[in-house]
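Hi R.,

Here's the chain you asked about this morning:
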Amino acid sequence: MTRALDLKDYSSHILVEDNEFLQSCVLGKTWTQLKGSACEGGAVSGTSCGGGSYAIRNNRVHDVFNAFLFTDDTTGQWMNANIFISGNLFERVVDDPAEPEGDSFNFHFFSNTLFDPHRMISLTTKGAGPIFVYNNVQITTGNPTAEPSRLNSAFKINLSRGFANGVFLFNNTIVGENAANFYAYDMLSRKIAKPLTARNNVYVTQLRVWHRVLGGGSRDLGAARQQRLRQPSPTSTVLKLWRSIFARVSISFNTASNAWRPSS
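And the predicted structure, written out as tokens:
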């Protein structure tokens, strides 16, 4: 699996800023041709025993399979914890710009701009959370996977196994009205086992917001007016996009040993 940076063996407090990432091996290939190949990697990967505290900001990531993938094989919230991904530009991502797996803890994906990704983020593994996804703009046109039957979306979610400390999706703008087979949410399971909060998001798509109707469980989807399918006039769509693009959020957190303040 190819990747530009592989963070492991207790690597921590790492800044990745003002870089350009691309994979020439993805050009002209479909999702199926790339999945499981040596080209499945991407820009930055945090694997088992990654120490966490990563700031990844103001990078350009284009023509890749994945962008930022974080996973671990051993239970523990100290691995791949306190991750802040902000202010990045993603273009033509065949799979996932962000994928927090395993026990990714205090994971923030915010103020990013995405053009033609397969989706914004994949949230499918047991133990992850809290995860915060906010203030992002995604515009998907056509079919980034080059496979007519593959579903494109903003959020890929498997809720059957639950999220340890919740997933929070808010203040995102999703435009997929000209994309192939596009839903805002690709639901691998209808059941919700742990908290999911989705509020104040704007969706512009020809299909339904939810790929599957949600079942019972712990969720907070906000008021109906916030979550319904919206198809505003072109003028209002442009205004919402620009407001989202120029909005920036500063995040602060304290650890036992230091105070760290990444900014976009």
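Confidence is low (pLDDT under 50) at residues 223-236, 245-264.

Let me know if you need anything else.
M.
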